[in-house]
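Exercise 7.
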Amino acid sequence: MSRHPGWVRPRHRDAGTALALGLIGLLAALPSFGLALLVSPFAWAKGQRTLRDIRSSGGWLDGEREARAGMVLGIIGTALLVLLVVVVVLLVLWLPGLVERLETRPEGVSV
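Solution. The predicted structure, written as tokens, is:
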């Protein structure tokens, strides 16, 4: 939506930040053992806030694609973070019982 020929809409200053946070959250999750997923909720929030600003600008600001991509990556990363937390909690609750059962196994019984 160009107001004048040759005029380029300025990009919202946080559109790239939302995208970068979303990418960091997902791409660095495996090498960091899931710790990078902690930035995903921030990408989600930053992307959502930036989209709201862009829409309320009346067409004067650009960067909607980057903000939306950052928000979607943040949602995916946040879902993975919640899943990771649930798995870790279940493992913490399950492992002590498993170790106890293995230690109290009667002699002569193989696993």
